[in-house]
Write a structure and sequence with these properties.
Elements lengths: L2 E4 L2 E4 L1 E4 L16 H13 L4 E3 L8 H10 L8 E6 L9 H15 L4 E9 L4 H5 L5 H10 L3 E8 L3 H11 L5 E5 L4 H4 L2 H10 L4 E4 L12 H10 L5 H10 L4 E7 L3 H10 L8 H18 L8 H4 L7 H11 L5 H13 L10 H18 L8 H4 L2 E2 L3 E2 L5 E2 L5 E2 L1
Parallel strand pairs: 3-4, 3-10, 4-5, 5-6, 6-7, 7-8, 8-9, 9-10
Antiparallel strand pairs: 1-2, 11-14, 12-13
Helix pairs in contact: 1-2, 1-11, 9-12, 14-16, 15-16
Length: 408
């Protein structure tokens, strides 16, 4: 196992994520196969991967319970447990809920303290409530840290760089680590490079989530896989994603949400050796990522010429970026971002919002549903006829197709 120094700890670089635990046959997301989890934890402990990451809402609230029961079979000092305050649900961000949820989490996990605890998912909608001193989130968590019930305090973020900067400008002195969605696809596509550089600039160690983009990077096209195999014939596709992260400055922990013993064993084997990519290999991998993006997304330079002339007051570049995100993952995070866009009425900065902006947000909410109804070979909304661009006026002359789409 590769180990990284963090303060007075020696951490395994591979962390055990518990958002995608194995499920009982025929069961729903909350029906975790505890026996299978126990077998996976035993192997992880045996191989030195003793950092376990869970959260209040994972597996309908059962992830904390299952992980607590399974880990209780081992001496408490032999493993490290991380959980998170569920501020992704803004209704939780108030003084009474902060304390009640934290106490509930300790009870569910069967522990007296968390080794690592995070503000969960700092993003556009909740950054204000998180920072509002009247909600007393930081105040309460710092008291728990002083009492020894939180050993290390950090944050996770799916928000923009500007949101992360706003959060850290206020709370950065208290943040011991930051958890980012970081992988070679998002390095440029979602601005992960700039976010990592921001944490490095502030000397905050980086924890990585979504290293395989929800499994998307574990299975590449035959052409892309063959191209990479020429450079490293022995490396698996997940291995390429992990080797990329091994070379990113500041990365201390890579969390992987593994659903089977086979996935765990393969990841443990990868993290037995530190083999970061060469510059040539990294360039080839990022070129593969760029090709994936070109094939999937609607291009936009964010010049914003269309915004000032949009009769409906839409923030077209932002809406396009959210649509493009749905082309890769039908994820909860995208829904949260759309919800923040709708509720905060961020449709046009100088226009004060418009009902049409809300309608665009609602249509974006439906895109994952629509995409799922299209066969994989035809999952391009434009070619399937579900996206109907309407011509707009480009102030430089000619016609353009901003996000005046009607989704059927």
């Amino acid at each position: 196992m590769i180990y990284k120094d963090f303060q007075n700890l020696r951490l395994p670089m591979l962390g055990f994520g518990s958002m995608r635990l194995p499920l009982l046959p025929g069961g729903g997301d909350g029906d975790v196969d505890e026996a299978a989890v126990a077998e996976m934890v035993a192997l992880a402990m045996e191989r030195g991967a003793n950092y376990f990451d869970t959260a209040y809402g994972y597996h309908n609230g059962n992830s904390e319970r299952v992980m607590g029961r399974v880990l209780s079979r081992y001496p408490r000092e032999s493993w490290l447990l991380a959980s998170k305050f569920p501020g992704y649900d803004v209704s939780n961000i108030r003084p009474d809920r902060v304390e009640a949820i934290f106490e509930e989490q300790l009870e569910k996990c069967g522990v007296d303290y968390f080794d690592f605890y995070l503000f969960h998912n700092v993003y556009e909608r909740n950054v204000g409530p998180y920072l509002d001193p009247d909600n007393r989130v930081l105040e309460y968590l710092l008291r728990q840290k002083e009492a020894g019930r939180i050993r290390h305090l950090g944050f996770s973020a799916h928000g923009s760089l500007a949101v992360i900067q706003r959060f850290l400008d206020a709370y950065g002195e208290y943040m011991e680590f930051g958890q980012l969605q970081l992988n070679y696809l998002d390095w440029d596509f979602q601005g992960a490079r700039a976010k990592a550089e921001e944490l490095n600039r502030r000397h905050i160690p980086i924890w990585v989530m979504e290293p395989l983009r929800g499994g998307r990077l574990a299975r590449l096209s035959d052409g892309d896989a063959a191209r990479l195999a020429v450079l490293r014939p022995e490396e698996s596709m997940p291995g390429w994603a992990f080797r990329f992260l091994q070379g990113v400055p500041g990365v201390t922990m890579v969390l992987s949400g593994m659903s089977s013993l086979e996935q765990l064993r393969a990841n443990l084997d990868t993290f037995e050796t530190d083999r970061p990519l060469s510059e040539a290999e990294k360039a080839a991998l990022l070129d593969v990522a760029a090709g994936m993006v070109r094939e999937q997304v609607l291009p936009c330079t964010a010049c914003r010429y269309c915004v000032s002339h949009c009769p409906k007051g839409l923030d077209i570049p932002t809406l396009l970026s959210l649509y493009n995100e749905t082309r890769f993952v039908n994820g909860l995070i995208t829904h949260m971002a759309v919800d923040a866009l709708h509720r905060r009425r961020l449709y046009r900065p100088h226009g004060g919002g418009s009902p049409a902006g809300g309608e665009a947000a609602r249509r974006l909410h439906r895109l994952p549903e629509l995409r799922g109804s299209v066969p994989p070979a035809a999952q391009n909304l434009r070619s399937s006829g579900r996206l109907r661009p309407q011509a707009g006026v480009n102030p430089r002359g000619g016609r353009c197709n901003p996000l005046r789409f009607g989704v059927s």
